[in-house]
Amino acid sequence: MFDYLIVGAGFAGSVLAERLASQMNRSVLLCDKRPHIGGNAYDCYDDAGILIHKYGPHIFHTASPRIFRYLSQFTGWRPYEHHVLAHVDGKLVPFPINVDTVNALYGTSYSPAEVEAFFARVAEPIKHCRTSEDAVVSKVGRELYEKFFRNYTRKQWGLDPSELDAAVASRVPARTNHDSRYFTDEFQAMPLRGYTRMFENMLDHKNIRVLLNTDYREFMNEVSFREMIYTGPVDAFFDFRYGKLPYRSIEFKFDTHDREVFQPNAVINYPNEHDYTRITEFKYLTGQEHPKTSVVYEFPRDEGDPYYPVPRPENGELYRKYKALAEATPNVRFVGRLATYRYYNMDQVVGQALATFDQIREATLDGAAVTVAA
């Protein structure tokens, strides 16, 4: 008899397994249908001996001291601030758009105040931003929208920005300073020995048993457990009762080059040319020294592993039907990106898992108090 069956060994499932095992002495059976732990953050060494991220680049950043302290129990850190270049008009320019981006594109020498005035001149006034197109043109105008956002979004989502929620574009703001960092969170770093090693340390506990290459449905009736924590796709849990929730997937193409450096930056976006959206060179992320280098090209697809929930109102309505089913299902908690149909960053998933653990612990303490009082 296990106290918990946890489905999915990514961040949500692994954090909850660790907390329940180490803080509440609960027995946990953690299963995943993939052959490895770590979910989409899984990293490994390729045939050339270069550490790669199998499911695309994962850059850790958070504004939460609690989340950073928690993960620091299982890994050292390599300081790393992420920078992205975009290939636009034949030039490599900083992205998100900042003062240097504008000056490089237009041959100007604007100050931060002058770039702010420039944005104010070209921005299109939109009272209520409903779509991603609205969100961008209301800040930086139509021309920069066309150069940086429209075609990239079409490739990434298979939809025009006018068909997507405003929140999609709001994740990447334009700036009126020289800050070229992609993220501005207080804590920005990469696991010193990789994500997989961090997950191994997290799950190294006598109360945790891990089953890989295993679909939970294959053994659920043969294993006894008191509660389930489910981190997989919520629509699959309910056998697609209301239909499939739409996701975008990605096809990854890896290449290794017989030279130390392939491109001048960790990530280069290609908004307007090629079928791929970006190229990532892993050694920038990991700090590994190696005479060769490996890169990955990302090709967005409709079919494949679910990565990005498609943020449209009708999809939100469909998810709410599944959410109602989830809330009415006893002894099962739904946690994580796929189970809650949200595009969370890694730290947000960790935060959600820690909050779920707090709820479990508080409910247990309240139950014990009631028992004692009775």
UniProtKB/TrEMBL annotation:
<dbReference type="InterPro" id="IPR015899">
    <property type="entry name" value="UDP-GalPyranose_mutase_C"/>
</dbReference>
<dbReference type="InterPro" id="IPR004379">
    <property type="entry name" value="UDP-GALP_mutase"/>
</dbReference>
<dbReference type="GO" id="GO:0008767">
    <property type="term" value="F:UDP-galactopyranose mutase activity"/>
</dbReference>
<dbReference type="Pfam" id="PF03275">
    <property type="entry name" value="GLF"/>
</dbReference>
<protein>
    <submittedName>
        <fullName>UDP-galactopyranose mutase</fullName>
        <ecNumber>5.4.99.9</ecNumber>
    </submittedName>
</protein>
<dbReference type="Pfam" id="PF13450">
    <property type="entry name" value="NAD_binding_8"/>
</dbReference>
<comment type="similarity">
    <text>Belongs to the UDP-galactopyranose/dTDP-fucopyranose mutase family.</text>
</comment>
<keyword id="KW-0285">Flavoprotein</keyword>
<feature type="domain" description="UDP-galactopyranose mutase C-terminal">
    <location>
        <begin position="147"/>
        <end position="343"/>
    </location>
</feature>
<keyword id="KW-0274">FAD</keyword>
<keyword id="KW-0413">Isomerase</keyword>
